[in-house]
Write a structure and sequence with these properties.
Elements lengths: L1 H15 L2 H7 L2 H8 L3 E3 L5 E3 L5 H24 L4 H14 L6 E3 L5 E3 L13
Parallel strand pairs: 1-3
Antiparallel strand pairs: 1-2, 3-4
């Protein structure tokens, strides 16, 4: 039953996550930071700063994460799930969508650079 619920959340997250990355992709500062490997996707569904932070980069990341949390909150409520469960499911999908050269956080907490191989994802990911 638990697996079924998570699978449903994963499907719902795929639909909900279309909005969050689309909003973020419109921000040229975010696009530049992502291309430079300064930010990456995390299993918790939020963007993280890979190396040293500066105030401008922190503002970009905070802004995106606030928007993502708002989407997660709305979608979790619609799907009768917790924000954390919905965010995890969304993080699984976001990491799966990374392309070679982009950064993502592995389940062990290390930052990885995506290669042509599938990313290392949380074992709870569908």
């Amino acid at each position: 039953m638990r697996r079924l619920t998570f699978g449903g959340l994963a499907a719902a997250a795929m639909l909900g996550m279309v909005a969050a990355p689309a909003m973020a992709d419109r921000d040229p500062a975010y696009a530049a930071a992502r291309a430079a490997g300064e930010v990456g996707e995390q299993p918790d569904g939020y963007i993280g700063i890979v190396g040293p932070a500066n105030p401008a980069l922190q503002r970009v990341v905070d802004n995106i994460n606030i928007k993502r949390k708002a989407v997660y909150s709305e979608k979790a409520k619609e799907n009768k799930a917790t924000i954390e469960a919905y965010a995890l499911s969304s993080g699984c999908q976001a990491i799966a969508r990374t392309t070679p050269g982009e950064k993502y956080r592995a389940p062990d907490g290390s930052w990885q650079t995506r290669t042509s191989a599938p990313p290392i994802r949380d074992p709870r990911c569908p």
